[in-house]
Amino acid sequence: MVNNFNQPDQPTSGQLERTLSHRIQALYRNQLGHQPGKITCQLFDEKLAIIVEDSITQPEKLLVQEGQEELVEQVRSGLDEAIQPLLRLLIQDVLNVEVLDILSDATLETGRTGIIAVLSETPLVRNPTSIPKVKLRATAS
Amino acid sequence: MQALDRQLEQILAQQVQILYSNLLGHVSARVMAQMVEQRVIISIKNAVTRPEQLLIGSRVRLAQQVRACLDEVMQPQIKVLIEEVTQSEVNSLVMTTHFDRSEIIIIAIFTTEMTGERLIRAISHTAKPISGSNVVE
């Protein structure tokens, strides 16, 4: 269900997405000692999509150069495992909704990581119709 | 002679620090070098990178595997760097990582003993830019 009791003091979806991007960037920096590239966050329906550019750390890049892709895949999965609980808390804190599931994968060739967080409900925002799919559902109900 | 030793140790430590930082993107490592007769002992403190530290918490064996691979990649480059800085051939090089202390110890043994003349040659050589991957970009 879409909550349409939007308040003027509530953030817009764009503000939430920008806050998430900044905080995820800081999480990468603090936890991995790595400054990632651009981070794009997009709310859609009861989900959040995150794209992290240049997400592969320098030691991983070095191992890929040496042909150790299989080892790096394991490292990636280990790092994801370590970061996910923190990412979950971060998203919950910013969006003020529960995170039910986090799915993530990285492409070593492009250095991009894609993350999808499944939320318990669509976050409360000042402009709910700007969130894709919410608009469709709102007009249908 | 001792002053020359200290000078070369300092240059070597700086160059190893630059190489380590360039290869691993890990800037907080502290490097010390000590020349002892025919050997140089290098200690890299705070050497374990953040990704490895994260892995140690849940997947120690994977972290050890990663470190073994990183050491394998770095070892020949460190050997070349030591040879270039000291202008002396390295006969053998041993590199061990102590995860618990976050420290790497490198021991390089030269083919022949470092004489005062060779120290002077090495120091005057390092006054010129060092070539290769150890140069800060």
Description:
The complex is a heterodimer of chains A (141) and B (137). With 141 residues, chain A is α+β, with helices and mostly antiparallel strands. Chain A has helices at residues 13-32, 58-65, 69-95, 134-140; strands at residues 39-44, 47-52, 99-107, 112-119. Chain A is built from 4 helices and 4 strands, in the order αββααββα. Chain B is an alpha+beta fold. Chain B has a single domain (2-125), classed as Threonyl-tRNA Synthetase, Chain A, domain 2 (2-Layer Sandwich). In chain B, a hairpin with a 2-residue loop joins strand 1 (30-36) and strand 2 (39-45). In chain B, helix 2 (50-58) packs antiparallel against helix 3. The longest helix of chain B is centred in the middle third of the chain and has 27 residues, at 60-86. The N and C termini of chain B lie far apart (33 Å). Chains A and B meet through helix 2 and helix 3 of A and helix 2 and helix 3 of B.
Q: Which features does this protein show?
A:
heterodimer, A: 141 residues, alpha+beta, four-stranded antiparallel β-sheet, 4 helices, 4 strands, 44% helix, elongated, B: 137 residues, Threonyl-tRNA Synthetase, Chain A, domain 2, disordered C terminus
Give the rounded overall mean pLDDT of chain A.
Answer: 90
- The CATH topology name of chain B reads Threonyl-tRNA Synthetase, Chain A, domain 2
Q: What's the shape of chain B?
A: elongated
Roughly how much helix do the residues of chain B carry, as a percent range? 40-55%
Question: Which spans of chain B of ≥5 residues are poorly predicted at pLDDT below 50?
Answer: 132-137
**Helical amount of chain A:** 40-55%
Give the ordered list of helices and strands of chain A.
HEEHHEEH
Assign the structural class of chain B, choosing from mainly alpha, mainly beta, alpha/beta, alpha+beta, or little secondary structure.
alpha+beta
